[in-house]
Structure formats: C-alpha cells, structure tokens
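User: Sequence recovery, please. Input:
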C-alpha cells in the first residue's frame, strides 16, 4: 500500500469508476439507472469531487459488477462512514477466490442495511467488540465479541449494533471464477 494523499485517492477512485463504466459500455445515465445514484452525483465522482458514503460505493460496485476493493483500489486503507457506521477495507485477496475483508465500527444502536451481492457471495462476520445482530430474510444471529457467523450474502442483510456499539471484521467471499 502506498502513501497516496486524499486528493490522489479521490483521483484514482474517479478513474476507476469511469474505466469500469466505459469498459461496460455504460453512459452516466445508464449507470445511474443501474445504481439508483443520480447522474450529477456520478459525474461529480468521476471528476474526483465529493466524498461517497459506504452505500454509494457499494451501489457503484454492484452496478458495475466489481468488488468494493476493486472499485476503491489498493492504495492506503480507505474509510467510509454513514449513519453511525464506518467501514475500512483492510485486505483484498485475489487468489483462487476474491476475498475482501473490512473492519466495521458501529455506534450504539447503529444499523446498516445492505443489498444482496452477486449470486454465490458469502459473508463471514467475526465480532471483535460489543454485540452485533446480523439478519437475513431467512436467519438472524445475535453475536457477542469472539463469535462468528457465515451467511449467504446474495440476499439483503442487516447489521445492528447493541447499546454499547460494536466492532467486527467482515470478509466478503466471492465464488470461484468460472472458466470461460
């Protein structure tokens, strides 16, 4: 990881958005339709302006069909925050499977609602501090510090911290690449 300035990180992020968008033959209007993010917001992000939230980055990654780590790049760890939840990408592995690991911090009672990932994606959650409730349409787990849970993340899921807040490591594991 390098010591890029915040301005350089914004520039790199902007370049990645545009490159992925053009590789897929998408216009800003087309990407806006896929992600639910306004065209003017996308245009600003492609110019390196603005500070996208976690949700915006995830929506872009989903719409562009890339991993969060691919989109933000491998420069210095980058933090995103929204509504009492902060997320930092701490590792990205592209060996047999793509695995992106995030450190998540939750303020007391903070929630994060996540859209489903691509088919076959799973998440592994290890709670480091506090209590974290993870809910999918089919299951619910209340995890204490030191406890872990794995679930199919290709469906909507929700994280909710207890009264004292929480911290967790979350690994997003993508399915094995299929031969073409």
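Assistant: Recovered sequence (180 residues):
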């Amino acid at each position: 990881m390098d010591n890029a300035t915040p301005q350089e990180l914004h520039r790199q992020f902007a370049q990645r958005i545009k490159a992925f968008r053009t590789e897929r033959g998408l216009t800003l209007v087309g990407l806006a339709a896929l992600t639910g993010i306004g065209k003017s917001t996308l245009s600003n992000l492609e110019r390196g302006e603005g500070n996208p939230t976690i949700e915006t980055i995830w929506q872009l990654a989903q719409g562009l069909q890339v991993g969060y780590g691919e989109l933000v790049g491998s420069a210095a760890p980058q933090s995103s925050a929204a509504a009492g939840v902060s997320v930092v990408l701490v590792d990205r592995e592209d060996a047999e499977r793509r695995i992106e690991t995030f450190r998540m911090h939750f303020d007391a009672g903070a929630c994060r609602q996540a859209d489903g990932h691509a088919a076959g994606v799973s998440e592994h959650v290890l709670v480091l501090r506090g209590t974290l409730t993870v809910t999918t349409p089919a299951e619910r787990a209340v995890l204490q510090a030191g406890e872990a849970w794995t679930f199919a993340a290709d469906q909507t899921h929700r994280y909710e911290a207890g009264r004292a807040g929480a911290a967790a490591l979350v690994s997003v594991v993508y399915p094995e690449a299929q031969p073409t």
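Residues 29 and 145 are 44 Å apart (CA to CA).
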